[in-house]
Amino acid sequence: xxxxxxxxxxxxxxxxxxxxxxxxxxxxxxxxxxxxxxxxxxxxxxxxxxxxxxxxxxxxxxxxxxxxxxxxxxxxxxxxxxxxxxxxxxxxxxxxxxxxxxxxxxxxxxxxxxxxxxxxxxxxxxxxxxxxxxxxxxxxxxxxxxxxxxxxxxxxxxxxxxxxxxxxxxxxxxxxxxxxxxxxxxxxxxxxxxxxxxxxxxxxxxxxxxxxxxxxxxxxxxxxxxxxxxxxxxxxxxxxxxxxxxxxxxxxxxxxxxxxxxxxxxxxxxxxxxxxxxxxxxxxxxxxxxxxxxxxxxxxxxxxxxxxxxxxxxxxxxxxxxxxxxxxxxxxxxxxxxxxxxxxxxxxxxxxxxxxxxxxxxxxxxxxxxxxxxxxxxxxxxxxxxxxxxxxxxxxxxxxxxxxxxxxxxxxxxxxxxxxxxxxxxxxxxxxxxxxxxxxxxxxxxxxxxxxxxxxxxxxxxxxxxxxxxxxxxxxxxxxxxxxxxxxxxxxxxxxxxxxxxxxxxxxxxxxxxxxxxxxxxxxxxxxxxxxxxxxxxxxxxxxxxxxxxxxxxxxxxxxxxxxxxxxxxxxxxxxxxxxxxxxxxxxxxxxxxxxxxxxxx
Length: 602
Prior knowledge:
By secondary structure, this protein is α+β, with helices and mostly antiparallel strands. Among the domains are: 99-189 and 532-538, no CATH class; 324-462, no CATH class. Helices cover 40% and strands 24% of the residues. The protein has 22 helices and 19 strands. Strand 14 (425-430) and strand 15 (436-442) form a beta hairpin. Helix 14 (365-395) packs antiparallel against helix 15. It is elongated and about 115 Å long.
């Protein structure tokens, strides 16, 4: 997509206006189509200064300013703020270079989600120097920009950004104590924030909440976390079993917009969290007939019965072992529907079911080839090691009598190659004196045949009335948005590790991460709506090139030499300017004088 400048003549006058266009493929070749007419964007309309920051962040047009009539008559193109000085360009310097683009984007998202107004109402003002609502904005902006800890925000990050100019909070007022107290105040309003975000998603993006995706992840602690009652060792998704952790259950929309989350003990099993989350979502948003989408880690008969009792619809994955009930259907080559290239699906009934639910049998050619290659690699590795054991036993003159020692050695390699171990039978050969003389390896044909059928196949379970397997499969695959949200939280936002010790402080820290995730995913939806794709990481990196700085200009005023310090935002590169234009974001186009220093008399 691109912007096009147009000219139109009417009654002898020429008018200019802008249109947003895109290139589309047609039978006659590529053609350009007008997506939207943006109207007239004159330089005067776009001229906004630092005093208009709030209007720019919220997407409002700055208030018009009255031009000086005498200047307008003398030079019609002159701006009211124009000021001419005799400058010494040879000694012009740039100072105080700050990160501007990323924090500007974070605050723009914060305000367009309406979080500044909501928290200003919720967080009562007392004797604090900095309002807690503004502290919450600083905390969320820091997390949005990938800061791992509040201490890092206070000691280093805040001072190198333009947040002082955007928020009006001096760097000396941002310290770790104030940020920690801000966490404590913010953590009390989690439920209200979740309700507000749900309404804002509906208003801004038109999101419908027919589907709710639920998944669980974990984040670990640096330190012993003795003050946190939920910190415990459990299954770590971060491969840090040496650290205590907490589990986080996230509910989001198919677009990946986060709706709610719950913090569980680090040793909590995923399947036991479903009832808590479903009850809280229904208590908060009503017991509507929404479709819950969950992976197989959440599936148990107790959870399925619970969802049925709540009259909830569901699409869930099932354990791989359940495929054994559908061996006949897997062997058939008819009644399969092509969902996409290389993927087929069909709706089947459980042989022992009561007809209240259906199953979707899926098989992927690419996934099957991958699983076969993995199994072949395991079989080769396990066979090679077992043959080594066999050769050792046959060559040894002193036969091994401790069969338990041999079995433990075999079991060690079987544990490293579990898929191959299920297919390969191993028997220890013995002589008349019960001494080990070798190994006998075999792979029954029946086991191999069943294994080949199951390669690339998986099973979904649902009580929805829909009978089209393609639709049911697509609904389930929306769960990848929840997984993508977790990846964003961990790789871009810096969810891990957690350095806090107190339970309430940790939950408040996770609330900041949740709000930052809401900003990040809202940015992706915003980009999609503007035809910019959904790669928010690339856009954030592009905005990171925008800097603010002080231009120090030595000027002469009569007999005095004065240094004028002008705070300005660097002009973005052309590609970044296009992104700003598409998103409707405008930067301050005028500098402001922040300091005049008299150097010496002439």
